[in-house]
Amino acid sequence: MLVFKLILGIVMQITILGVLLFLPAGTLHWWRAWVFLGVYSVAGIVATSGLFPRHQDLLDERFKVFHQKGQPLADRIILYLLFADFLGMFVFSIHIEEEFLKRELPGYEAYMERVRYRLIPFIW
Question: Which terminus of the chain is more solvent-facing, meaning fewer CB atoms within 10 Å of its CB: N or C?
Fold first, then answer.
């Protein structure tokens, strides 16, 4: 069962990363993204292959969701605070970048008016 989870996990990571790269680009003809996916795939397979024979318990633990039944309340609070902090920093950094681009890049304000969703298509 663990081998199936490993293979499925690697395939899902590569698929999600590929969608996140190629969907906003609007094309599959982006050789640098293909190279990145290839390097990422090889690195993931090598790392997993190195851990699998000797540390199956570690890999099994890493496949668990971050919020588990019986987890202490303090751990859950810290996890959700870290997630909220990460999300807040992400939104804040995007806001700073947008302001910088409006100020420093000629024509960016016109681009902002023309393109509604600049980060995630049809969402943000």
Answer: N
